[in-house]
Amino acid sequence: MGDIASSWWMLLVRGLAAIVFGFLALIWPGITLLVLVVFFAAYALVNGVFALLSGVRHGARSRAWLIVSGIIGIIAGVLAFAWPGITSFALLYVVAFWAVFSGVAEIVAGVHLRKDIDNELMLIVGGVLSVIFGVLLLIWPGAGLLSLVWLVGAFAILYGIAEIALALRVKNFTSSPTVP
User: What is the full DSSP assignment across 49-103?
Assistant: First the structure.
């Protein structure tokens, strides 16, 4: 339990990064593809690095899934930075598959964490939101980049709120007394 509670701030940073990214996407709906790629790449890298760090610090039950989620985020961010001129259609699929795979990894991590923490539901909720978001993008790819901007912004804000709620819940374990 100490490992998870001591890294609560990593979840908080991930949540704050998601909310900042979401608001930037909503504030500038007419942004160019290049700016969207940079915003997405930066968010995916930050999210991936902190998920990877959390995975390295956690116990055996959740370690692998958090590491997988982190690696997926880092790869998605690097790919987006490497090819900033990709079309909105290609970006849509990068975002969709990243959301589905990282969401599944977070759902599995949440299920594994149920023995370590109470109310692991926030990690699962974040994962479910991620999977739903990715599937919706795959079902309606022709919605266009502007729609993607709004979907990405709304998803990121909701996901960030779920991550912050989890961080605050986990942080409570650092200040609660342990019973011998």
Answer: HHHHHHHHHS-HHHHHHHHHHHHHHHHHHHHHHH-TT--HHHHHHHHHHHHHHHH
